[in-house]
């Protein structure tokens, strides 16, 4: 479709992501595969405009003005090696995603900036997802994104997820790292309902996602057996793993008596032969849970 439109409108622009203000002299549209296309207003007649809007969605989102720091980071990521860019400390990429049309990107950036002590670069992938670049100097404490979510939810009623990448102190392979954090963030929230996931926590999710579909299907069937559709037991196991195999914490989290939890763990072991109180066996069951998703 886009190739046909290019023949009609030679000046058509195509973006796979948007992280800067769109030219106001263009009509902008978003396609079903999330590509953003722009056609100069002086190339479209009113009849053509009406026709385009029958199969394309008009795109009117306005993004914050790109700061000099954001421009420099974009150059480093896309054009590395960059001789004139030096790190003052370490940095990490934090992927964020929100529900579409929930908050204006400009308002979101203003809210985020108020939560940081310094200006924070934000590189947008679309109007509802992007990368926050958290820079850290002199071993200062890292940001706790669980707290940010609480504030945004209470002040702006915004539901947001964060995939927190590891701190880096070098720029080598920065573009590959940037892409891996974006793609990783887009993947992990298909498997987890947590609002904040660190890179380390996400490794099992990413590994399972890269495995063969048949392998995932067989893994969940072989390990979970008769409990495949037992949502109560699966929830218990997931919570048990998230509580670091601590029975007391799990019972508290599930509002369950400790003895009742012990009984259910014993029952699972009797049926499957797997003791999830053992770390290695618990991790296998956890991977089977992810595969089931």
> Cα-atom Rg, whole angstroms?
24 Å
Going across the biggest sheet, name each strand in turn: 6-7-5-8-9
Number of domains: 3
Please tell me the CATH architecture of the largest domain by its name. 2-Layer Sandwich
Question: Residue ranges: pLDDT <50 for 5 or more in a row?
Answer: none
Q: How many beta-strand segments?
A: 9
- Fraction of residues in H or I helices: 40-55%
Q: What's the N-to-C terminus distance?
A: 34 Å
Determine the CATH topology of the largest domain: Alpha-Beta Plaits
Order of helices and strands: HEEEHEHEHEEHEHEHHHHHH
Which structural class fits the helix and strand makeup?
alpha+beta
Q: Under the CATH scheme, which class of the largest domain?
A: Alpha Beta
Gross morphology: globular
**Share of β-strand residues:** 15-25%
Number of helices: 12
What would you say this structure looks like, in words?
The protein has twelve helices and nine strands. The chain has 293 residues and is of the alpha+beta class. A five-stranded mixed beta sheet has the order 6-7-5-8-9, sandwiched between helices. Helix 8 (213-224) packs across helix 12, helix 9 (231-242) packs across helix 10 and helix 10 (247-253) crosses helix 11 (258-272). It is globular and about 75 Å long. The protein starts with a helix and ends with a helix.
